[in-house]
Specification:
The protein has 19 helices and 22 strands. The strands form six sheets. Strands 1, 2, 3, 5, 11, 12 and 13 form a seven-stranded mixed β-sheet that branches. The longest helix has 23 residues.
Amino acid sequence: MLDDVLEGFEPSPQIVSMMAGTRPAAVLGIDIGTSGVRASLFDDRGKEIEGAAVRLQRSTLDDVALINADEGLELVSQTIDALLRKTELLTTAINLISISCFWHSLVGVDADDRATTPVFTWVNNQATAAAAELRRFFDEPKIHARTGCRFHPSYWPAKLIWLRSEQPEAFAATTRWLSFGELLVLRLFGETAASVSMASGTGLLNQHSCDWDLDLIKSLGIDRNTLPEIADTNTNFHGLTENFAERWPQLAEARAFPPIGDGAANAIGSGCLTTDRIALMVGTSGAMRVLYKGEPPHELPPELWCYRADKSRVVVGGALSDGGNLYRWLSESLLPNDDTESIEKSLGLLPPDAHGLTILPFWSGERSTGWSLDARGVISGLGHKTQPIEILQAGMEAVAYRFALIARALAPFAPGAAIVASGTSLRFSSVWTQMIADVLGVPISLSDASEASTRGAALLALEAAGKIQNIETSNTTRESAGTTFAPDLTRHARYQAGLERQQRFYKQVIGEA
């Protein structure tokens, strides 16, 4: 795998300059997603070093709901291997490690720090019945106001209740519950702690106190000692465990900061740090978020969640479980012989919402805005004349409609905000980016940052290390807005009818949100 990544590599001018000692690397940035891992080098101002980046995909994307812990850790290790080999002539040691990791994962470890369970990701819906039971037992709006999270199988409360009932042996063998990010740090450094950011996505953190919600934990029957410690603002880890110290001598002096949630990192890396910008991301899944310094809202709309980037920065938004994963499923199932370029060209020739189809894009279930526990994908309106490319188009439009609903709920938190988009799916489909702009009826600027989440985590680490005084005012933070997609208002009007039709269909099939 590494040979494939490194084949034909030639160092960029930036790397050559670094080899000569004129531009030292400062940060190794790692972004861990459900579909793969990316690693990049950044200078001490948060600029990615040209050519110093690698990405490794998971060997299979058929099921990312459960990830083998050891296989996941090895993929991260191989990605670091690939990057360090790619830049092995660097003479300056890397001194900081930043990590962005997918939110909401859960894995148990025993007294010897061995995994007792697979890594349960946000996609996993095995705890659906447990989430429904929690909704019956608790006053969900009150819990939502404190934790920023609804009761849903993607969060820890339902997962832990389900594990205790359905996997009692694994539950009993577990001495600590961690996210994948904390498990990675534990394996690399022999100790770990949860950042406020990662903890905020569990459904167990009080967003106002930035500590575990003890009343909820007690009511759930969860032992506080099985939850990770919440990291202080200056917490960092130094000194790799023996095996990794031998494997990566270049990281001998590196300090690692606790991983942060990929959504918070994405907003920061896209330059969205105040309420005048909304970050829109379409990768495997999708999300819209507004990040700002201040306190979390005391009243949170039921459509949205509230997490944190750190103790001073709040993230309010909504998330879709289907984004690029739905595009991939539809294109591979319906157009297996067409390449991305030909598909993009065909999509660009189609008129908006002219296919007669209505799709509920819940192949992986629903989070925002309805949080239905039973929602699944539905296609209505198929006929003998329906073309495969039209079904793909309708699926992409359906995702855009869900973003429009999130945007409506977010409007009071960021009135008149500009939208900055990022994510692999949008970078490779200008048609989809334009489609979302047309549905929303506002311009969308596509971020220049190739991987916003990796960059965001690096910037936050540099601020924590004192290399950047303040990411809100740093010159490098806001350099990411690129190509702007202006909405076509004629298409916008057509899409409003499509959105209303989808909402009527949602109520018929799923019911009131």
